[in-house]
Amino acid sequence: MSKQLLDTGAKHPFSVAGLADRTWHFVSETAFRAGWTPLTGLAEAAVVSLMKRSSKGCFRVLTYRNIYTFPANGPADASERVAELRVVNEVFWLRLCAMGDLGFAEAYMYGNVEVDDLVNLFHIFLDNREQLDNLDSSVSYLFTIPQKLTSYRFLNTIGNSRSNISAHYDISNEMFAGFLSEDMTYSCAIFEDLDGDLSSGTDFGRFSGGHGLTRLNLSTTNVPNILSDDTLFRAQMRKLHHIIRKAKIMPGHRVLEIGSGWGSMAILITQTIPDTTVDTLTLSVEQQSLARQRVKAAGLQDRINVHLMDYRDMPEDWKGAFDRMVSIEMIENVGQEFLATYWAKVDWALKKKNAVGVVQVITIPEARFERYIREIDFIRKWIFPGGFLPTLTFLLHTLQTGTSGRLTVDSVSNIGPHYARTLREWRKRFLHVFETKIVPSLQKQYPEVMSGPRGREEIEVFKRKWIYYYCYSEVGFSTRTLGDHIVSFTREGCQEYGCDTFE
């Protein structure tokens, strides 16, 4: 089994909880790999029995001994989604039976199963969620208790937050540059045509997780010229300009940005609005380094300061110093326990009169919230440790409690459906340049692992993890199982803000 240098747990090596988690991971993986035949047989029978309840869409499961089709009669009509799974290692059944959704994710990551189209499969699972709900059984619940307990090592205290951020954003600047557009914006874009790419004739199945399968009669007529297409860049610029207009940033304003990314927002503000200055905060060493390089290359080093700083550590002389505040998809890294504290610090930093702020936040529907906070899912274990998606209600409630009502919500909008296309664009680019850019960047950053004797195995696990992340998230946003809200707020009585209803 892969040592997984890029496993998030590796970023928290010196804690009791971290040691306990690594011990549990070793024990569980050893048990799975043993794959005692009677147990895998029982697990297969249990999962197949449950899968027979599915009634929407159609998926086949191919094993070395059996071919299962769910539902047995196949798709009801030609318009229904179809998918195919090929079980490579029967430990797949144990993972799925013992750990439910998370077990399926890890089975895909480790090559225990191949899937021809993850996006279609996730849609089918969602369409049948009521019938398949028991997949997360009492057995899987008991199996994930140790992970739930040890997940407290990711609690976003000041000490842990930098490690949590580093686990994702410090992987490699060159790796991120491989799939992001030239502006290096790593958040939801706003497209002129929401799902225009789906009508382009592109076969998205070739980008949806089936790279481990040999495809017969594969057409090459609709392979897009990805790198020459600046659709994603235009969409990211559209979103950044939208947030600047929502914040109504004016000449001479001092702006606080919490969550620098690689500097795209700070650079655009200072390039387009005269005499503005930006203090932008990040906890990623890699992001700070590249953002500073980009700021200097743009000749803006006198107007933009990129700080390696936790929002709770802002210096005393910043109190009441900022006219505007922006934060793009950073609140997801704050944590449930600290969201009111976050808003209190925003209130503390903004001027007492006529201040305005805008945040962009990935959210989860209220109906799913209680289950979400009880479980450890694929994203929080493998992609964003310490991550927490608030509901819109929880977000606005903590804004009110954290600021004692001193900040007033002005507008709320949801751009979440645009995230599905953003993720498709990233996924196409990721796969298009994987061998030429992604692999070399990983080997450069982690030579002992990615260029070692098991380097290709490590690289394949990394590739599968990211493809799963892209597809899993795309379906979440396209089905509105996830949202991405832009919230603007002002000081009470901020008459200069105006009322741009259609902005």
Write a brief structural summary.
With 503 residues, the chain is α/β, with parallel strands linked by helices.
Describe the structure.
This protein is of the alpha/beta class. Helix content is 46%, strand content 13%. The chain has 19 helices and 11 strands. The strands form 2 sheets. Strands 7-6-5-8-9-11-10 form a 7-stranded mixed β-sheet, sandwiched between helices. Helix 4 packs across helix 19, helix 8 runs antiparallel to helix 17 and helix 12 packs across helix 15. The chain is globular, with a radius of gyration of 23 Å. The N terminus is likely disordered.
How many E strands? Answer: 11
Head-to-tail CA distance between termini? 51 Å
Strand arrangement within the widest β-sheet reads 7-6-5-8-9-11-10
How large, in whole angstroms, is the Cα Rg?
23 Å
Rough outline: globular
Mean pLDDT: 85
Percent strand? 5-15%
Helix content: 40-55%
Give a topology summary.
Blueprint: H1 16-34, H2 37-51, E1 58-62, E2 67-70, E3 82-87, H3 91-109, E4 113-115, H4 118-127, H5 129-132, H6 138-150, H7 158-169, H8 173-179, H9 231-247, E5 254-258, H10 264-272, E6 277-282, H11 285-297, E7 304-308, E8 324-328, H12 339-349, E9 356-363, H13 369-374, H14 378-383, H15 392-403, E10 407-414, H16 416-432, H17 434-445, H18 447-450, H19 455-478, E11 483-491
Parallel strand pairs: 1-3, 5-6, 5-8, 6-7, 8-9
Antiparallel strand pairs: 1-2, 3-4, 9-11, 10-11
Helix pairs in contact: 1-6, 2-3, 3-6, 3-19, 4-19, 8-17, 12-15, 16-17, 16-19
